[in-house]
Amino acid sequence: MMKHLLISAALSVVLAAPAFAADVDTIAILTPEQGSDYGWNQQGVDAAKAAAEATGVEIIVAEGLGYGDVRAPMREIAADGADLMIAHASGYNTAGPEIAEETGVAVAIVDSPDALVPGKVADYTLSGHEGAYLAGRLAAKMTTTGTVGIVVSGEPPSWNSQSAGFAEGVKAENPDVKILYSVIGPAAYSDAAGGNRVTTSVIAAGADIIFGQGNGSSFGMIQAVESNKATDGSDVLFIDVIGDKSELDKGHLLTSVLWDMTPVYTAMIEDLKADKFGTHGYSISLADDSVKLVKTPQVDEKAWEEVMALREQIIAGDIKVEPKFEAEDVRALVTVAE
Question: May I ask which residue range the UniProt record assigns to the signal sequence (predicted)?
């Protein structure tokens, strides 16, 4: 399959189960990096495979496509019979709708919630803001320097909502804790060197807990956390997002705001079958565990119990955490922005 695809990317076809839906037989997911990053790409690929298995359809996995023009591979995948293409990168949200219009194949994109086209284009700009809020509460409980940092590889809506949620959680727990905010670059998702450099500077400015959002650049953030001490001499801790890097941890991972996109992709497939695709967005939440915190050995037990009690209050509606998708909202919440 796809013998003539002239790109440097890994493509695989997995038969999840015998197809039973005449209108949706095959889905595809396209990712900019390999689906082995313990983050955005891996969670997307794993969720798409799980959704395909749950709905009995085939899946094409096209990974490592980069952040450039993906029109050619999308055309190839459409020609190979995909009924739905999940364009799993914000940089694909221009090409995606164009290819949907050109080929008639439904496309799901991110970070363009106003781009919905019934039957053709759906958006799944997800927000783990509830989990990020809890991570902020945890960070404020456990900081010893009284300063925490947020380091991001860009300012897409999903990152902004989590940065804002984290900052709100810190402030709710202890308004005296300083929050430093640094952006590696406008789209520095795979810039590990930049992640290391910026995180090192944030640690030097006093942060002993880093909330990092980066994709590939997260590995640079982790390197900085592992190789630098906090200004009070304590170990620096890292809060990750989307994936679970526990098996790589060397004693610095505090938690991760874990995303499970399986319910989202499953709903997309069912919507396409029911002629509802492109009529609404999708979400993840604490209530169904599609957003949750990862517990690691570095977490203080008492602090964890308190945070889990806060989780129940959010689910019950006693604590309201609203998503904020604009960068200026984030900057208004932090102490210092760079």
Answer: 1-21
One digit per residue, pLDDT tens: the chain, 338 residues?
444 443 434 444 443 333 333 489 999 999 999 999 999 999 999 999 999 999 999 999 999 999 899 999 999 999 999 999 999 999 999 999 999 999 999 999 999 999 999 999 999 999 999 999 999 999 999 999 999 999 999 999 999 999 999 999 999 999 999 999 999 999 898 999 999 999 999 999 999 999 999 988 999 999 999 999 999 999 999 999 999 999 999 999 999 999 999 999 999 999 999 999 999 999 999 999 999 999 999 999 999 999 999 999 999 999 999 999 999 999 999 998 87
What residue has token string 């944030």? 202
**pTM summary value:** 0.89
Plot region of 56 (φ>0 → left; ψ -120 to 50 → alpha; else → beta): left
Same fold for the pair 10-123 and 129-259+288-337: yes
- CA-CA distances (angstroms) from residue 85 to 37, 71, 77, 221, 278? 21, 12, 8, 31, 13
Distance set, CA 9 to CA 3, 19, 111 (Å): 12, 26, 23
Say whether 118 sits in a helix, a strand or coil.
coil
Residues in the chain, overall count: 338
Q: What is the CATH number of domain 129-259+288-337?
A: 3.40.50.2300
Q: Which CATH architecture has domain 10-123?
A: 3-Layer(aba) Sandwich (3.40)
The string of DSSP codes covering 208-273 is SEEEEE-GGGHHHHHHHHHH-B-TTSPBPEEEEEES--GGG-SS-EEEEEEE--HHHHHHHHHHHH
Report whether 56 contacts 83 (CB < 8 A).
no
